Amino acid sequence: MQTLPRILVILPALLAFGCLAPKGDLGQYTDSDGTTDGTGPDSGTTAASAGDSDSGPDDGPPECVEPADPTEELAGFTFTPALAGDSEGFAGDCQVTAIEVLPEGAKVELGCGEQVVEIDLLLDEPLTQFAVGDPLVLDYRVQMSFGTSDWFTLRRPAPDGTLLLGALKAEALAPPGSDDFFAPLSLVPQEGLCPTAITCDDMDEPIAVEVTHGDDVALVFPTRSAAIGDATYRVGVTVARKHHDEVSDGQGGVCQSFDIPEYFYRLMFHHLGD
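The structure assignment produced for this chain is given below.
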């Protein structure tokens, strides 16, 4: 007769222990719960991380992943005398007066009448498009918005007019009203090719640039380069991105950033031969 009371004492304790509320934030269940692939909020990476070596069906083409040797090219200009603050650029006939070869590029000096132009070039490959003494036509455009957008071309004099070197660091792929600025190349942005988790920590989406030369079309992704036009030109895309200025923080609020341009590009074009 003593067994029953003992059970009645133990049973409530067991029930109470088994019904204790779980500790911690359960969050929301997803299909990835229970996996141990090293992704998630505690790992410092996400499943769509740009460093992933394998691309699944929802990761986009493999070109969305940054290569081991990414393209890194840039052009910087110094004008003597300096251009006026409200200047929209400079265009003129020039002659190459000096070329200094540097470990990661070159410094080019042009004499354009009374204007001296120095171009600092960060390059993936050696500069071979022209030499000291060559005549060139420079067309440099600049526009102020969020920051400085600039575009330039160096061409052989008319009637040839071959584009030898060109670049842009700008919010648009061409200067205002000059869609054919980089002819014979035409440029069109292509969005949505690299699925990207837009978060408060990363509000930028990589986009590709479609480059056309005659009947030849190349789709060039950020940090990559491609030859086009039967290897007439090499196009390097260092940066091509779209910025989202308002993103959900996942907790009912939003992250906002309005001081960054929606689009930004850094490209360079190299003439490889006729």
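Interim note for the steering committee: Confidence is low (pLDDT under 50) at residues 1-57. The first strand starts at residue 74 and ends at 80.
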